[in-house]
Please model this.
Amino acid sequence: MSAGDQDWDEGIPERLYVITRGRSGLAEQAAFDLVTLIVSRAEPAPTMQPELAAILRICGSPLSVAEISAYLGLPTSAVTVLLADLLADGRIEARSPVPQAILPDRALLEAVIHGLQRL
Model:
């Protein structure tokens, strides 16, 4: 059975402890939210931890933290710890999602439309 096949709700929590090297991810969660886009900047090294290598492989195109968590079958708290390691090593780039544009006031739009109609 591979690591991706294991159901973490009923799985072994000690494995998460090993994957994250005992770190909880509380500090890293401030740097990453569920919609932060991750892009790999390097190829995985042969001696790299399997979960880190998997992140680098799947992030050839931008993926959100939530998508990475789903693909790996790991909780987002564990994924943020791994992403923080990769970011510190310069192996990934974290991009904030594009903010929604601020829409102009409805009254302003109506005034412009009325002004154009008078021309």
About this structure: Strands lie at 37-40, 63-64, 92-95. The first strand starts at residue 37 and ends at 40. The chain has six helices and three strands.
